[in-house]
Amino acid sequence: MYRAIDSFPRWRSYFYFITLIFFLAWLVKNVFIAVIIETFAEIRVQFQQMWGSRSSTTSTATTQMFHEDAAGGWQLVAVDVNKPQGRAPACLQKMMRSSVFHMFILSMVAVDVIVAASNYYKGENFKRQYDEFYLAEVAFTVLFDLEALLKIWCLGFTGYISSSLHKFELLLVIGTTLHIYPDLYHSQFTYFQVLRVVRLIKISPALEDFVYKIFGPGKKLGSLVVFTASLLIVMSAISLQMFCFVEELDRFTTFPRAFMSMFQILTQEGWVDVMDQTLNAVGHMWAPVVAIYFILYHLFATLILLSLFVAVILDNLELDEDLKKLKQLKQSEANADTKEKLPLRLRIFEKFPNRPQMVKISKLPSDFTVPKIRESFMKQFIDRQQQDTSCLLRRLPSASSSSCDHSKRSAIEENKYIDQKLRKSVFSIRARNLLEKETAINKILRACTRQRMLSGSFEGQPAKERSILSVQHHIRQERRSLRHGSNSQRISRGKSLETLTQDHSNTVRYRNAQREDSEIKMIQEKKEQAEMKRKVQEEELRENHPYFDKPLFIVGREHRFRNFCRVVVRARFNASKTDPVTGAVKNTKYHQLYDLLGLVTYLDWVMIIVTICSCISMMFESPFRRVMHAPTLQIAEYVFVIFMSIELNLKIMADGLFFTPTAVIRDFGGVMDIFIYLVSLIFLCWMPQNVPAKSGAQLLMVLRCLRPLRIFKLVPQMRKVVRELFSGFKEIFLVSILLLTLMLVFASFGVQLFAGKLAKCNDPHIISREDCHGIFRINVSVSKNLNLKLRPGEKKPGFWVPRVWANPRNFNFDNVGNAMLALFEVLSLKGWVEVRDVIIHRVGPIHGIYIHVFVFLGCMIGLTLFVGVVIANFNENKGTALLTVDQRRWEDLKSRLKIAQPLHLPPRPDNDGFRAKMYDITQHPFFKRTIAVLVLAQSVLLSVKWDAADPVTVPLATMSVVFTFIFVLEVTMKIIAMSPSGFWQSRRNRYDLLVTSLGVIWVILHFALLNAYTYMMGACVIVFRFFSICGKHVTLKMLLLTVVVSMYKSFFIIVGMFLLLLCYAFAGVVLFGTVKYGENINRHANFSSAGKAITVLFRIVTGEDWNKIMHDCMVQPPFCTPDNSTYWKTDCGNYAGALMYFCSFYVIIAYIMLNLLVAIIVENFSLFYSTEEDQLLSYNDLRHFQIIWNMVDDKREGVIPTFRVKFLLRLLRGRLEVDLDKDKLLFKHMCYEMERLHNGGDVTFHDVLSMLSYRSVDIRKSLQLEELLAREQLEYTIEEEVAKQTIRMWLKKCLKRIRAKQQQSCSIIHSLRESQQQELSRFLNPPSIETTQPSEDMNAINQDNSAQPETSSQQQLLSPTLSDRGGYRQDSGDAGKPQRKFGQWRLPSAPKPLSHSVSSVNLRFGGRSTMKSVACKMNPMSDAASCGSEVKKWWTRQLTVESDESGEDLLDI
What we know:
Largest sheet: 2 strands, antiparallel
Mean pLDDT: 76
Number of helices: 55
Structural class: mainly alpha
Oligomer: single chain
Helix content: 55-70%
Strand content: under 5%
Number of strands: 12
Low-confidence stretches: 50-63, 383-432, 448-464, 485-498, 1328-1425, 1438-1453
């Protein structure tokens, strides 16, 4: 990058390399970790389903054995293997098992570790064999040997070695005993001495549990370590055979050297040097093959192998599925307990006596004295009087009712205690009635389901796979029927024994689920009670302590000035626009901008802008342009302090400082605000002119650099990032202790083996220390690869330097502190190759194992453990750590549905014209694949450099022009096929149009100018075109969505990283702004200004030589020029400041913040990683729903009316299909759910998709506790309302049918009487014309009348049954209309003889309805009684007799 800065414009180099590192190193590379973790989790879930859950870990200290009891039987008895089985006296056994003995041994181990860590190099002439450290080691070894012998004497040898911990102790005892032998002292047996520190893990139970959780199930981690070692051995052997014959290549001459080279590639440190040396040695012919070999090995080792370690550690941190729900309940219960207590700063008022505010009533007669009354008590009457006055003053009809009703409601609220007592007596009766009603309705539904399953209505239909909606609906119906049913009813139906056993197990299972529901409800009630108790405590404190909730104990609670401050502090933009009539939230066009404006209050927005401006002003500061001597920079300082003073005063007056419920200092953010303000105020008032190095004034300037952290407090999402960072501090602290323990073990070993042995003379020709004196000439070379041709007698340029016997510049092992610093640098995988080469060259090749073992343990286990813990803490803070597999899939599904959008694809034109043909061509898969191949072909053109002076560039540009015209033709065809408005609806089409337009502009400029800039523009257009191919394939689209969504969700984490980097950059300018140039501090990388400091820190974030920059900033006299007056006049560094500065920055950024990005990518990858076996909505289901929605939403607005939901649900097929023959009740429930939740208004794309997702999963397994209760309550309410509507519809149709029959009977009687009167009149007064006899018609009437009781006897119930579907549907009004049968249309049946006879009688005799009313009103009471009795009989039969609800009256939509 520095070379590009020297060769090209600075902005181009920065933009290219920073974006390259961000996308490839931080996002795309971490996608591999997400893939491995998700795949590993899927494999684990599948194996758990096959083999069951993993076995619970049992303690090794207890076991079970068979013992014969007194009756001669056998039973399992728990046996403690730590039970004393030796021959030691009882007093020694009791002492050995006591906690005092245990703590004494651990304290001795701690003292031994401290003594070992105090060892240091004392010089070459000091006798090291029998110093005080050796004598202390002998004493501790004897002590621990006696401890082991005592335990063996007390427990017996068999009981002693049965424990894994005792085996480890015995190994240490044997090794350390051999180590104190003089010939073996300071040898490889030193490992046993320093490994005693591992025993200190027993001090902390939390650390012990954490270590056991990570390393306890060692099969997976051990197998992975063995696999890694095997891979290294195999690849080293292959490389040895491939490159051992290559001349001038010493990296693969022997197997140890080949092993070290392949291990170096595995750690990514200097692997490019290994590859370059090999490429230069093998020649140009085999260079591509060798490069591919090393690159593939590097990618596999770094992207897959290291990700496997992270996956294994995360799997070890994962809880069992059966423990997760239990922990969810426990966590909810713990949260309820914590919400009950007030903070300590408020509970302090309870220590003072109660002094409520009292008032005295003065306007009363003086005959008797009235005591003082509480002000709050009198205030109730004052408020009531004001409300009554307002009711009297506003007597308008529109306002009087509402205001007076409000006063009535307040009066009722005052008597809550009496009402609560009265309601208690009614509640049990109400609950009993509700339970009976629920039982009756569930009984009806259960009988309907059973009769439908037992009937033969579905016979003869082709069998097909049931949709997931149908499966989940039947699961819920079965669950409810089993939950409300009884065993005796099922036994009486003559089921087999196997079926009864299965039913009993199902009943037990659902009874357990019902118990879980009661526990969840108890926790909810506990939460509500905790919140209520908290409010009651606050009200009591507010009532009894007059200074409670008073800012600074001065401003009153309801003072006007405090209310004004509250209004100013809490004023914010209302982002949600609601409809004043319906109350629904309106979807505005610029809702994202409105949400951003409503993110914080107006006051916080002002302070954010002021803080950003102040930070911009600080970026112009440098050691040569200081704020103390620049009046323009002081203006920004004054503005910041003034605005922050106003802000804090307003917030303190509104919310209080400390002893109020919403105080400014109620968390760490408030403390940080006050601290930043005080530091800025002190610096502004002091404004020191001379700032000595390492003084209090310089420390004040460093603390002033924390100003950008104010953004964390002002933005809620930034506070959430900090909370996620610090909430998992416990686990991060435990991992840090483990790594420090590992470093201490290896540092103590390194001090005892390498102290004083790494030093050498700076003259390479001098070997012994005695000869290292005088001066020698050192040559200066411009470049390592540049060989200057010298003339005869000419020497290379150089200068004379004194000979010095010294350690390597960056590290040594002379004491434990320097050794731990060196190992910390090695732990970051930076500089470890240099450490290895120095140890091998100056101590011996065998000691190279030391650094390789440490790098393997630190890199493969230590760093991946950091990654795993950060990911696990992130999941725990997000609430996903305790989720089961089904619950996690459900959360992923909800997040994926939020991202899903309707298809912006217009429908195919109706006719078969030119547009329709174009539509078919552009939507054909072959056309899309052809375009994708053309995009790849155009991208291949960039494999050759486009240079204006190269003649090859012109043909390449011409081919790109041809491709551009093809893409223009593609866009034109799509616009013709979809119309311009339909084409513009899709974002992908907009992107294609933008890139194509840029391509056309490039073509015009290319033929007009034909220079280097047009070639560069053409290459950029090809790169932009290449990104369009990611949306044309499902897998590529999934990975692209993972990266894009990760960028969106990690925006605030990236902003937080930048703010931290900005704080460190400002501090770096103050501490190291004038440090002299060194090995890595140069004209490009330095801290002379904030901009250059940001560049250096970004380089440190990538880990590139951060340790060398740190050592350059540690330079001390005599290698620099000190100045005690001012820090900007010296070029020395700060040793302690550099150590804390760089180590803290690297740990926070590289180990924690970057791993948060990994956690976000892992979380987002699981959103899009779904298979058909998940039993949730897959990509095909979503795609099918998008297509159906696109058909229904003809206006492409994203919303449809509620009545169109029925049409949409009928069009769904596949796993989302609702079969109206089998699940019409589910269809009614889904439709009513949409109507209920949206009040009959419009529904959006996500509303319907959310409803389908809830209906497609088993809510008992997938939903969390609170969401499960809310969903079950909603579904129960929907089922109850649908049942009520069905019953109401039945009643209406039954009454309509009864009235129709009565009308028919009345018309028949009227016709007969009229015919009798006519016959009688004709008999008395015979007419002159002939008449016909109605013999056939009267016979038909008699036949119908005789058949009518028979029909009524067959239909005993008013509810419809499957045996008589057509009888009740075909009445006189619907005789000629087509009828529906389970979603299909059927032809009408033949007309009944009765209606034919009645119509013939009316036509023949010309009867009118004049006598109809008379005939119907002859006995009205009997008609009403018959109707009521028939309805009563029906209702009784519905509750007692098994009825059928699957008739068309029930299923009619």
